[in-house]
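Risk register update: the risk of archive-format incompatibility is retired. Evidence:
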Amino acid sequence: MSSKNEQKQEFLFEKVNYKILLIGLAIIALGFILMSGGGSDDPKVFSEAIFNFRRIRLAPTVVLAGFGVVIYAILKNPIKK
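Archived output:
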């Protein structure tokens, strides 16, 4: 085979897209970490900590922002030379 017939393998995304994608996944993971906890050690005792601001408002907002970053990374048009 000659080298003329060989095609250069190209990735679907550019390097920047993958970096943005990883940042988005890290933001999503942070949101789920913020949602964790708030339970009671004793199952017979109800804990109001599950309804605090961090778990009800902040964590879902962080997760949605992470999904937005991931969607941006997928839709970002790579600049072809």
